[in-house]
Amino acid sequence: MFAFEVIKQSDSARVGKIETPNGIVETPAFIFCATKAAIKGADIERMKEAGTQIILSNTYHLMLQPGEDTVEKLGGLHKMTRWNGPMLTDSGGYQIFSLGHGSVSEEIKGIRKKQKTLIKINEDGAIFRSYINGKTYCLTPERSIQIQQKLGADLIVVLDECTPFHVSKEYTAKSMRMSHRWAERSLREFERNNSGKQELYGISQGGIYQDLREESCDFINNLPFFGQAIGGSLGQSKEQMYDVVSFTIEHLKKDRPTHLLGIGGIADIFYGVSLGIDTFDCVHPTRLARHGGALVKVKNRNSLSSKCKEHINLRNRQFELDDNPIESDCLCFTCKRHSRAYIHHLLKAKEILAHTLITIHNVFFMNKLMESIRKAILEDRLSDEQNNWIQ
Known about the structure:
Radius of gyration: 21 Å
Number of helices: 16
Strand content: 15-25%
Strand order of the largest sheet: 6-5-4-14-13-12-11-10
Number of strands: 16
Shape: globular
Largest sheet: 8 strands, parallel
Helix content: 40-55%
Distance between the termini: 41 Å
């Protein structure tokens, strides 16, 4: 019921397909975050219309509300959401990180918010209080797998601790080896109740340290995971992130689908694809939409104020009387029906419809980006295609 095949390789970039019981994912692909079993700002039908192949939901949030037992009674995530394509659930590991250290961007910027929900991380797992009702939970590797099996996504992930950037190498090494033991426990629990309808991904840790990354890759390579992900701290800058990802992927097995966790910038996707990354996930396209940001190609930025950015901010006054669509060559629902001026008005009027319309465009944009990347790899012209999307 599951298979991964590389169809064409051009240098290190590759086009492939991941077969699942709920459909095929053509890679490289972008996975959109339906964190609480919903894409913020768009319904499932619009996601399908925009060419989406696969979506992701979050174990941590769904265990708190509505609870994995409720999701299971409703027939699992596919039936509950009416999404009939492949799905992935993450393990809750990133939420453990953010509860203790804040988001990645906050951490890099040195923002230290006082966290009141995380109680303790130890060998057993993570003990925390629900942000909903204050109830205490313990998320162990076994519990994470049990929850993900009840949620019913096609692809699931081992529990790990996502180490922050500012900690020492000693802490990173200790955490990595604990995550390795958690991975072994996750795998044992997965195999104990494996129905054949799901497959498991391992996660490479090790922070920014090459020797730790190599040790972690060796560990993941030697266990029977279907797929593998690159996780943990990727550094303090884009250059450092590129170095970490480049080094890590060199040491991972090439016959497995490789996922890069939490990365979704256009330039970052091109770089990852050039190294052989198969899938990406990030809240960036939908979060950007909720702040008025619409993704645009290079040729459509040249006459706008945000030439050097990947998006335009439709809140800006310059769009008040702009009767053009977000992109004149875009065939998404939004661009075929609405103008920048109308969306600008909706944003100023604080109408929720604005977020929906921009989200639909951004989702369509990302799917077209990945489609263009796959075509370019098949035609051995990835670097030329990159010029159409970034500068």
